[in-house]
Amino acid sequence: MKNKIAANLTRPRILIFCVSLLSVASVSIVRSVEARLMMYATQQAATTQTAAMAQTAPAEKTVEQVQKNIQVLTGLPVSQLIPVMNYMGSSLGVKCTYCHVNKDGKWNFVSDEKPEKGTAREMIKMVQGINKANFKGNPAVSCFTCHRGNNEPVRVPQLPIAAPTPFAETAETATKETPPTADQILAKYTEALGGSAAIDKLKTRSMKGTWLTGNGITLGYEVYQVAPDRIYTVLNTPKQGVIERGFNGQTAWEKSNRGLRDLEGIELFYLKRYPDLSKDIKLQGQFTRLSFSRKDNILLCRLSVIGILSLER
After folding, report:
1. Whole-structure pTM over 0.85, yes or no?
2. Mean pLDDT to the nearest integer, 64-71
3. In sequence order, what are the beta bridge partners of 108?
4. Cβ neighbours of residue 254 under 8 Å, at least 6 residues apart?
5. Quick one: which of 246, 264, 265 has its CA closest to 255?
């Protein structure tokens, strides 16, 4: 009789214990699911926020949005306009005044007065067409392909063709000099400047000199820099007087006889390129590829010249 009573009392206890275990397990599962849902929601919110920031980031303006009378180079980022102009001028061996109007030291880039500007537009269209039709749009052909530093392309080779000069025979026993690597040359360059420790101590720099412009005008200039990215420049012009420019790391300004104004667009872009004190000193790490090119004898000094094959930064 006692055993039956004990058994009857034990069964409810076991049932209650099992129910308690199930309750604890259910709570743990629910909390685990809630934690995973919270983590997923957080990741989704972060992804959405990153995408929204990417969409709201301002894109660089194109040249036709900033400059006037752009007919061919539409879609070109405004920061690439001056490099493209310099490339075309160097390819033809000419200055800016070859195509653009400059009267009394004042530029009128909008003007189509010079016929050379119209010719340049036609040549750009021709080059673009050749690359599109034959090279899948890649810039395989350029101004320099034909002009080679002359405003008129050389149509025929100079005749008669000179007889080839045979290579001088060298003795088989002569040992070939192992060329240095680009890193070795840059290490020597750093050592000649006083070493990395001395370079790292540089905090200020000042420069004074003269600047000969493309149209033959000589200007006096002064540059004062303070690390990491502040710069102040003074330009002495014969007609516009003194022109001062400054950049404090965030904003830039110009002061002249016309008053004070903020610098924006392409002017701000180019001014921001110069404040870095180490740009012309710490060359390692600035380029994706450097290679040794040749050695030249200049002023009785044996110099190693680096051939820069790529300028991608």
Report:
1. no
2. 90
3. 101
4. 243, 244, 245, 260, 261, 262, 263, 267
5. 246
